[in-house]
Design goal:
The complex is a heterotrimer of chains A (197), B (425) and C (395).
Chain A lengths: L8 H15 L13 H5 L3 H15 L8 H9 L5 E2 L2 E2 L1 H10 L23 H25 L9 E3 L5 E4 L5 E3 L3 H17 L2
Helix pairs in contact in A: 1-3, 1-6, 4-7, 5-7
Chain B lengths: L9 E9 L6 H9 L6 E2 L12 E2 L14 H6 L1 H16 L12 E7 L5 H7 L10 H10 L11 H9 L6 E4 L5 H14 L5 E9 L3 H9 L27 E10 H7 L5 E10 L12 H14 L8 E3 L6 H15 L8 E2 L2 H4 L6 H15 L1 E2 L22 E2 L4 E7 L4 E9 L2
Chain C lengths: L4 E9 L6 H9 L6 E2 L10 E2 L5 H5 L4 H6 L2 H16 L6 H5 L2 E5 L11 H6 L9 H6 L9 H4 L4 H10 L5 E4 L5 H14 L5 E9 L3 H9 L15 E10 H6 L6 E10 L4 H4 L10 E4 L6 H12 L4 E4 L2 H4 L6 H15 L1 E2 L13 E3 L4 E2 L4 E8 L3 E8 L8
Parallel strand pairs in C: 4-5, 4-6, 9-10, 9-14, 10-12
Antiparallel strand pairs in C: 1-7, 1-8, 2-3, 6-7, 8-15, 11-13, 14-15
Helix pairs in contact in C: 4-9, 10-16
The chains are: A mainly alpha (197), B alpha/beta (425), C alpha/beta (395).
Chain lengths: 197, 425, 395
Amino acid sequence: MIDQVTFSPAEVESTVVDAVAKSLLLKPSEIAINASLEDAYGAESLDMLEIVFALEKAFRIRLPHENILRGAEQKLGEGIFVRQGILTEQGLEILRRLRPEIDASLFTGTVRVHELGRLMTAQTFVRLTLRLLESKEESLGVLRESGCSRCGSRAIYPSQKAAEFVCHDCNATYPVPNGDAVLVEDVTKIYRENVRP
Amino acid sequence: MFAHSNSTRVVVTGLGVATSLGLHVEPMWNAILAGRSGVGYIRQFDSATFPVRIGSEIDVDLFPRGGGYELLLAANRSLRFGSWAAAQAWKDAGLDAAHALPGRAGVCAGAGGFPAMESRIAARPLRKDAAWDSAWLTEVLQERPELLCQHQLSTVSSLLTEQFDLRGPSVTIQGACTSGTQAIGEACALIRSGRADIMLAGGADSMMSMFCVAGFTLLGALSTHPDPETASRPFDLTRSGFVLGEGAAMAVLESLPSALARGTRIYAEVVGYGSSCDGYRFTDVHPEGSGAVRAMRKALAAAGWKPENVDYINAHGTSTPQNDRVETMAVKTVFGDHAYRVPMSSTKSQLGHLICAAGAIEFVLTVLTLKTGGIPATINLHRADPECDLDYVPLESRRTPVRCALSNSFGFGGQNGSIALCRWD
Amino acid sequence: MTQRIAITGMGCVSVLAPCFPAHWERLLNGESGVQRWPDASPGWPKWHAPVLLAPVADRIRSRMLRKVLQPSAMMAVSAAREALADAGLEEAHEILEETGLYIGSVSFDLPPSQFVPAIRAAADDYGHLDPRLFGTHGMLAVDPLLIVKGLPNGGLCGISIDCGVFGPNLNVANGSIGGAQALAAAVDAIGRGEVQVAVVGGHDSLLHPEHLIGESMAGRLGAAGGPGYVAGEGAAICVLESMEHAVRRGARIYAEVTAVAEASRDGLEPALALMPATDSEPRLIFGDLLGVGEDDAREMRAAGALGSAAITGATGAIGFTGSASGAFSFLHAAKALRHGDIPPASYTGSHIPAGLRVLRERQLWHPGSALVWRSDRGVRNVVFQLSAPVRSGEL
């Protein structure tokens, strides 16, 4: 049967803080969970990349790597969330709902899309990790119910690749949900249910 | 400084290239103006399982064999490209038959590559129970001593110094993506300081090995578009990163008195060079492109130009979301309203990013633009990013006389270079 | 040269010390940092001159730089910060924005450990590298920051970021001549009026396995006392300034750079021939004194042609520091000219021509000028002439 490794929110938070601290050459106790990593600790995009990789390995998930709003615009229509590099009111509303860990007042007025990196906090990584763990559990749940789609086996285990499971009987592979796809779906859902004018 | 000072004037008298679009200047230039892409699937290793499988690659089987240094050239792709391009440029400048003053001729090359661990394993497989240690490495290098040159960036300049019997300065520059531009700028400086009359200058690089492709992929720097020919799309809304390329370009730079005395053909004059450092972050560009602004302004000042004098800009234009947006901003800062009138194209759309050779090949292309009046297009530009709203010469090359041009490179680590060139009539 | 050029600040990291004053004192006392290499297996060099990195890393402000910079690049940042402080320019932000940066660097500093995990993960049962396995498994074992950590211009970019230097710049990655060529490029740039101030020097570490193996194969590595050199590492950085700028702001001037020449292929003589004549007798030379037969013979021949001369060099004390070596000689010469205190050389080579004295003891002496030279196997050669500072302070 598939290895059922679950993580409590506390464990997720602890692992995230450790990864952030390691990347920024700080002690975990020095990381404030809601502080902007860029403003408070001088983090740059290279640090964020390292943190993303560390978390993907630790939790066997795929975090988003691309710009989620632009990804959603490819489904919903160009210019809905970002225009001339600036977030529209709808874009801001999406972010207020998608990122409850950030002070909502930061998503008002003129916000440029390339400045969004400054709003990353350790809590943001925690929220993303929990979301992708949840998504992984859903897809694993389906596999547990129905077995390998090719041979029906239930001998499905994590493969050597971090973001993948493999059937030990027929070698069929099952990648974990792609973080970009999951988040784009979330954005689409929020838009259709709450934000669309 | 430069054209408006008493120092020696510097002209371009020879060109040579090795690119995925051609191993000689003319066919490469024709392919560029025809809007062809040199990007394909990587063949130098089996990239089937790699997230990125494309590159602007040169078929090394096209090079003639023999002629000396074959072991060295076979061991090091960028060395082969650089040596080839240099010989072409030297001949183009009429120096192979001429009696150049060897004491006053030198070389300044941008050199790249990456520790080629793959070739060590290929030379001597490493079984799982075997230790990777000095004994193993010693055996490999004793058997294949030519592999040592892969770790030595100085090899390109060393080889050219020997090949052309150069007695002047022999310099190797490494400024990441700005190397080629800096090598040319420094070569001009050496001529202007009176330390050489003739300089072979340019760059050679090949960063398409497994480790390099993996490394750049992990950084998120490479285009994720799967179709090779449309993957490099500078300034386009859907751009997602650059395409790795390999190759070399060399120019012969010469003091004007030397060129006139030899009666050789002159392509163009280098009238300005600006160099600056962002000093901001290792891979993030300064948000306002302040370093790029400074480099361009210095080049213009050195040339004695106003922004309105510039007819064409060969952009750095890597096709990364960050660079293209910030570069556009920097150009607007420097050129004001004129930014909307001056055509600015990125030849990386066709050749990909040659890293340490990029500035060199783009210099050569800019010289050709001045000489022929052909302005290369930025291909694959179907939907411009609204934040990138300048005239990037989308999709089709143009024919317009160009008198004054800038060639820009803005590199990893924050080193920026801008060269000002003008047509020679 | 249309501008006079002053040396106004110095900093270094060497096996002797992580800062210039302590390094200089130990050098003057004839101390050596060459030490036995405890892990020496057969065929591996038994001696090295390694730098203690901890004090160096602590000096670097930026955490990102501490994370990605290779050891010798970190040494460069530390030495640059020291040189700027020594020149009184550390907080002079307006000046630093236009200050040039010319650095001679190492080719590649990445140790094999950066590559081995991926290679193991992608090896088939016979130990061959399987590209398909690399794409699936090997990549997972590649450090996401590999490319950034391997940037040969890391030292220069690190100095720019950590010290706030934004002007014209050049990273010379040309083997062991890099530092000397960076100095020459800076001298030219100031001479042409392109910059008023420049941070210049070299950093390198020869303790990379492939370098050691290659040099061993060529029979060039040796023990303390030769024959052969001991591999070392370090960074030597100075501040060069137009004399006008230096005098105007009341900078302390170590020495003046009065000439530079560079030539390839034929050893030191063609570049030496371009040095201005001087009354200074004997000529004082800060040279390589590598301890390798061929190199020594070449150097001795060049020194011999000068007639009466005295030579010193730091290789015996700090090991051969590659791209940094020319810069170390440059700093030593400038310091010696200012204080009239010449460090000794430990050199056991032969071919010493008549008329040349190897300074094996510390000398108290105020020569008017000194030559600094670096020759990379006679193929690339750079020579400087430095002059003692004008005591009256007038131009």
